[in-house]
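Friendly challenge for the regulars: who can give me the structure tokens for this chain first? No prize, just bragging rights.
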Amino acid sequence: MPGSGEAWDYASVRNLGLGARHWLLAGGLTPSNVGAAALEAEAWGVDVSSGVESSRGVKDLDLVRAFVQAAKA
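First reply, four minutes later:
Bragging rights claimed.
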């Protein structure tokens, strides 16, 4: 379900035949899984929302920093 914040099988995206297209991976990403998920899916970039919230609709600056650091690793 879009916007649910639930993780899914990120590696399954490789079977879509996206090739060299630039696309963003989203859905269920958090600081603890973004690095592996982006590598598994061979994503060009990532998008996050609820994965860096301390409570619904409230972004946590420390989680945002951790997410960016993990995404760059």
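The mean pLDDT is 86. Residues 10-72 form one domain. Your move, everyone else.
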